[in-house]
């Protein structure tokens, strides 16, 4: 089974070239544009993600198929309501997949790859994780609902295709009704921001309504500073893919107890053990 997104790769590359040329002929001082080493890293991360992800997809097909087989009902792919249910269920699954990968450090270690660029352009969309196995649990419920596995994969591809176009500074805010319901380049610029007010916001895939419902929405106001709160000074794809796992390993080795080890693995990124309060020195009497 070949992921549908692979068929769109030539179009992705063409659009990246077009966007890069647009900066050459219509520059904007408020936009970062492209940087050759950064873009090369993003493309390398995307290629590696597809190579690693293909055999994992085969295992995922088996998991979805097994759950679909034992589902109480099998929904018809010819029913428009099955497609409506799939659209909303997939987008909600993506929201919680995305949010969990920001709020749990072990998952963040893979997803941090996507946020490691200090540029924001269409090539950034291809800067993907090399550890796709952490996504599996979030879509298993759709198979148990009776949605055929091929439909789940197709809707995931549609969502990824949509999100490719979110990674651009060339599109300003869209009309208000669209901005209120759908994820847009403006909303996604916020998501990639390292500004304190933009951290862990706007997790939506196609829709932004989940962020509004669950309190994680933030509009674009201040100029976005892209990248990580602590950026890595490397364009090496292997370093980009593994640096947070290496940091977790170093923290685990230095941990003094299992509670601290679990905190380093499953706490929020940046979690640190509480430092015991130092009791005040006793008063000296003379």
Automatic annotation (TrEMBL):
<protein>
    <submittedName>
        <fullName>Sterol desaturase/sphingolipid hydroxylase, fatty acid hydroxylase superfamily</fullName>
    </submittedName>
</protein>
<dbReference type="GO" id="GO:0005506">
    <property type="term" value="F:iron ion binding"/>
</dbReference>
<feature type="transmembrane region" description="Helical">
    <location>
        <begin position="136"/>
        <end position="154"/>
    </location>
</feature>
<feature type="transmembrane region" description="Helical">
    <location>
        <begin position="54"/>
        <end position="73"/>
    </location>
</feature>
<keyword id="KW-1133">Transmembrane helix</keyword>
<keyword id="KW-0443">Lipid metabolism</keyword>
<dbReference type="GO" id="GO:0008610">
    <property type="term" value="P:lipid biosynthetic process"/>
</dbReference>
<dbReference type="InterPro" id="IPR006694">
    <property type="entry name" value="Fatty_acid_hydroxylase"/>
</dbReference>
<dbReference type="GO" id="GO:0050479">
    <property type="term" value="F:glyceryl-ether monooxygenase activity"/>
</dbReference>
<keyword id="KW-0812">Transmembrane</keyword>
<keyword id="KW-0560">Oxidoreductase</keyword>
<feature type="domain" description="Fatty acid hydroxylase">
    <location>
        <begin position="83"/>
        <end position="216"/>
    </location>
</feature>
<keyword id="KW-0472">Membrane</keyword>
<dbReference type="Pfam" id="PF04116">
    <property type="entry name" value="FA_hydroxylase"/>
</dbReference>
<dbReference type="GO" id="GO:0016020">
    <property type="term" value="C:membrane"/>
</dbReference>
<feature type="transmembrane region" description="Helical">
    <location>
        <begin position="80"/>
        <end position="97"/>
    </location>
</feature>
<dbReference type="InterPro" id="IPR051689">
    <property type="entry name" value="Sterol_desaturase/TMEM195"/>
</dbReference>
<dbReference type="GO" id="GO:0006643">
    <property type="term" value="P:membrane lipid metabolic process"/>
</dbReference>
<dbReference type="GO" id="GO:0012505">
    <property type="term" value="C:endomembrane system"/>
</dbReference>
